[in-house]
Amino acid sequence: MNDHCVRKKLKNSQCDNCAACCPADAVTFGYLDVNIDNDRCFQCGNCLFVCPSDAIEHIPVRERSYNNNGQLVIEKKETPASAEELLVWHRQYHIRGMQIAEPE
C-alpha cells in the first residue's frame, strides 16, 4: 500500500473496497494502515481494480483460466495454485482440479 490509500490519509475513512473483494481474506486494517498478508494473497488482482485511489502496489496479476472440465489451467512455467487458491476458484467458478498445460 502506498500513501494514496484513503485509510492512511483520513482517520475516519471506512473504505474497505480492497478487503471486501479479497477472496483470500488477505487484507487487514490497522490504525491509519492497511496490510496485505503475502502468504494468503495469490495475486488475483481484485483489489487493484476496486481501489478508488490506486493505492495498491507490487501485486502482479496472475492470468489464470479454466476449462469446461472444471479444471484450473496452469502453464507449466507458472507456480501451481495453492490449496487456498483452488478453494477460492471452486467457490467462485466450481473448479474441481488443476491441469498443468504443456507450452505450445
Structure characterization notes:
The protein is an alpha+beta fold. The protein has helices spanning 6-9, 17-21, 46-50, 83-93; strands spanning 27-30, 33-36, 65-66, 71-75, 97-101. A hairpin with a 4-residue loop joins strand 3 (65-66) and strand 4.
Concise summary:
24% of the residues lie in helices and 19% in strands.
Write the layout of secondary structure elements.
Blueprint: H1 6-9, H2 17-21, E1 27-30, E2 33-36, H3 46-50, E3 65-66, E4 71-75, H4 83-93, E5 97-101
Parallel strand pairs: 4-5
Antiparallel strand pairs: 1-2, 3-4
Give, in spatial order, the strands making up the sheet with the most strands: 3-4-5
Ranges where pLDDT stays below 50 over 5 or more residues in a row are: none
Count of alpha/pi helices: 4
Distance between the termini: 37 Å
Oligomer: single chain
Indicate the overall shape.
elongated
Report the helical percentage: 10-25%
Q: For the report, how would you describe the main beta sheet?
A: 3 strands, mixed
Q: Residue-averaged pLDDT, rounded? A: 85
Given the helix and strand composition, which structural class is it? Answer: alpha+beta
Our estimate of the beta-strand percent is 15-25%
Q: Write down the secondary-structure element order.
A: HHEEHEEHE
Radius of gyration: 16 Å
Please count the beta strands (DSSP E, at least 2 residues each): 5
